[in-house]
Amino acid sequence: MELSTKKVAILIEDMFNIYEFWYPYYRLKEAGVEVVVVGSGRKKSFTGKPATEIKADVAAVDVSADEFDGVVIPGGYAPDMMRRYPAMVKLVADAVNADKMVASICHAGWMLCSAKVLQGRKVTSYFAIKDDMIHAGADWVDEAVVIDGKLVTSRTPDDLPVFLPAILEVLSR
User: Is there a catalytic annotation at residue 135?
Assistant: First the structure.
């Protein structure tokens, strides 16, 4: 699948899950997608768990959802940091509201909660944030990957082999 006309933002903040960042990053590049790493703007480089460092290409305040065909939100505890930055939350909300592909895995559902885009949506996430997602209006299910329109959600790094094909399929629409 060649997606060379597509451009996707991958959000980054400290405590990101390295697998949930690197796996989508390289699979998207492999498909020909232009990948832009978007940080909170708090600093230039962010540290994942376990200890790997990523340098952001740009800060969230310097981009808009209009520039991208999609947004990927890695999990770990980074989403709890990301949602403290209004520009990052706005980027996610604007992308969902513009019917662009938005993908979240694990704890990344926290960003969807903060963006207030879950009302009536069928989603999944890491089980520990199930209540947060339900309280935000989602229909939460325990499945490896869920596609609701252009919203793609997944549970854990073990689900990456089905999460990425779902992202690529939605991007190709």
Answer: no
